[in-house]
Amino acid sequence: MMVTPDPETVAPDHAGADTADRLNQQCFCITLDRQALARTLDIEVGIAGFAAALASSHSSLFSNGPVFVSRAMIAAMEEVVAAVEAAADLPGYRAAAMAWAPDIALADFGPVGALMGYDFHITAAGPRLIEVNTNAGGAFLNHALAAAQRACCREVQFLVGSVVPPANFGDQIAAMFSDEWRLQRGAGRPPTIAIVDDDPEGQFMLPEFKLACAILEESGIKTVIADPGALGFDGSVLAHDGLAIDLVYNRLVDFALAEDRHATLRAAYESGKVVVSPNPHNHALLADKRNLTLLSDPVALQRWGLDARLRKVLAAAVPETVIVEANNAEDLWADRRNRFFKPAGGHGSKAAYRGEKLTRKVWADILGGGYVAQAYAPPSRRIVVVDGAPSEFKLDVRLYTYAGKTLLAAARLYQGQTTNMRTPGGGFAPVLIVEGSQTCA
Known about the structure:
Helices cover 35% and strands 24% of the residues. The chain is of the alpha+beta class.
């Protein structure tokens, strides 16, 4: 697990940042070894031909090139994570976040949320926190991806060893779910885990579920992949095909478990008969996009008692965010080119819009309620060779964390307004750490 450094000891690394930017624009010599990735995936999942099927169904899931990030930039991102989670511990912040949360989110059973995702754009002035996610996908796929990188010249061979995911990733995942269990149950580890999502066999991220299942099974925890409709609850035990489920790794995007098809899981969760992670409280506390209005409000953070140094970190990193309302609609429309609009309960970039692309029809939908307007923080760029020619991609960097500590980092390359995992040449990319001035032949 990466250790969050003391911000007082982190010195600016302009050389490292400049080198990382130059490598992202000019270095094409480290590429994905797709044969190595296929072997890794087939072995981890235990299904012959799994990787071949994945390549056929998800042709743009993995990019051929990595993304270079300076060590100082990673440390700065981790400072932001620490500041956000410190703010979320404050009674004033919690009261404000719970004021717009659904009733089911008010109860705190103890778990802090498995595999949180903190998404950043990298700028010359430092990282910008774009959003926080509780069901952040891609961690297991990115761990396999990072192990399948190769360098084709000696000058950058050492960089391959600087990929962020640790060798003991599987152990950390098992420990994370065990910690979540103990936070609610007090001791031990969960005998069984269900990875739950709607129609998992039809989900784009089904390969991720299979990797997670294999890792947890290897650790000795019985794990199944389940549709919530296949769960049963007798008032005491949540079960799937006769198997008692102790912990649910929740991948649903119905964050409040409000839909009728999730009634069984909701009943088991509300009665405390099953541990759910991430759960409605975790989402309401950290991932509701209205909370970005709290994190970008230095006056409120000071009133609630957040340390001055952490307020400074958030002021630099969290773009100003406001809730779209009738009384600010005219000003926001006028300033739309400098804004990004997102639904408060959104996920996966769905219904999110760059302001300069807005039509009057879409604007009318936004005014219907439930949106935030975020100051636009432009993404950095990566040049990747696609079909023999260089092509420019936007990128963001995601830190996958647990209890504020980084488990791994990964990037997503895309073209268009938002990440889509369907752009040829784009997709997930490993993050390679750059320290100081380095060159690429």
